Amino acid sequence: MKVLNYGSLNVDYVYSVDHIIVGGETQHSSKLEVFSGGKGLNQSIALAKAGVSVYHAGIVGSDGDILLDACKEAGVNTKYIRRLPVKGGHTMIQVDKNAQNCIILYGGTNQMQTREFVDEVLADFGEGDYLLLQNEINMLDYIIDQAYEKKMKIVMNPSPFDDKLNTCDLGKIYLFLLNEIEGEQITGYKDKDQILDAMAEKFPNARFVLTLGSDGAVYYDGKEKVFQDIFKVKAVDTTAAGDTFTGYFIAAVIEGRSVQEALRMAAKASSIAVSRPGATPSIPAMDEVKRELGM
């Protein structure tokens, strides 16, 4: 069984500000930091740090050395990462004094996937292999269709949610990992139980993990709901919190742990990540997570 994450790779430009800027305002930033990031890369690094042998597929630009270095340092296999001689994906991130953030995303090379490249990547994967996807690359509909034909287990983090997802056959998804906002965007409901019930009705063959911010997370398979509270820490930067949770949850499931154990490990890993600055640099290794949990 192999694990493929086909997703975005971004250079993150993180500006420390007093408060999130509003329309017409000019504000000095107290600090600028440059990190590797992108939901795809963050989740691959979380998987790798959680002990999973993961392949990452995607495209970087001429500024992609920092991204390839981050993969190699974390142990992510870069066999399926291509480089184009153009500007790659990047973000401009504001982080305020309360550790809240807002993000402007430029797709760059992340939006340059082709059918030929998708076919080339998926040729090496088949039945029972895991495929992790987010919504920061193009060709998602084609990737889902081709992976489903190969009987891969498709895990979807539908973030950021937009109309592009309406072109995808989400009935082919094995596991959804989403937050309250994405849950409301898909179902029209704000209440967590209504979101999960509506998701289960809409996608009866799938399983769901709904993250609830400071209210924890809940798993639902259409029958049983399993809840996990947060581990309270002083937040410094929440940028990679959800991606860390996603990577660790999937890793624990692949390892054969129970849903409750998987949620607990993911929650602990996420709590460690938010206590540190940056996206990929904030993601903890499995040894640290186990030590914090007394395992």
From TrEMBL:
Which reaction does this chain catalyze? D-ribose + ATP = D-ribose 5-phosphate + ADP + H(+)
Q: Which residue numbers delimit the Carbohydrate kinase PfkB domain?
A: 2-285
Annotated compartments: Cytoplasm
Q: Which domain of life is it from?
A: Bacteria
In this chain, K(+) is annotated as bound at: 237, 239, 273, 276, 278, 282
E.C. code: 2.7.1.15
Q: Where does substrate bind?
A: 10-12, 38-42, 136, 243
Q: Name one Pfam family in it.
A: PfkB
Instruction: Answer whether the UniProt record assigns the keyword Acetylation to this protein.
Output: no
Q: Which residues form the active site?
A: 243 (proton acceptor)
InterPro entries membership = PfkB_dom (IPR011611), Ribo/fructo_kinase (IPR002139), Ribokinase (IPR011877), Ribokinase-like (IPR029056)
Keywords, ordered alphabetically: ATP-binding, Carbohydrate metabolism, Cytoplasm, Kinase, Magnesium, Metal-binding, Nucleotide-binding, Potassium, Transferase
For this chain's record, the cofactor binding note is:
Requires a divalent cation, most likely magnesium in vivo, as an electrophilic catalyst to aid phosphoryl group transfer. It is the chelate of the metal and the nucleotide that is the actual substrate.
Q: Does the keyword Cell inner membrane apply?
A: no
Q: Where does ATP bind?
A: 179, 211-216, 242-243
Residues folding into a coiled coil are: none
Name the enzyme's class. Answer: transferase
Q: How is its activity regulated?
A: Activated by a monovalent cation that binds near, but not in, the active site. The most likely occupant of the site in vivo is potassium. Ion binding induces a conformational change that may alter substrate affinity.
Cofactor(s) the protein requires to work: Mg(2+)
| UniProt pathway annotation | Carbohydrate metabolism; D-ribose degradation; D-ribose 5-phosphate from beta-D-ribopyranose: step 2/2
Q: What does this protein do?
A: Catalyzes the phosphorylation of ribose at O-5 in a reaction requiring ATP and magnesium. The resulting D-ribose-5-phosphate can then be used either for sythesis of nucleotides, histidine, and tryptophan, or as a component of the pentose phosphate pathway.
Fill in the subunit field for this protein. Answer: Homodimer.
In the record, the note on similarity to other proteins reads: Belongs to the carbohydrate kinase PfkB family. Ribokinase subfamily.
Q: What is this protein called?
A: Ribokinase
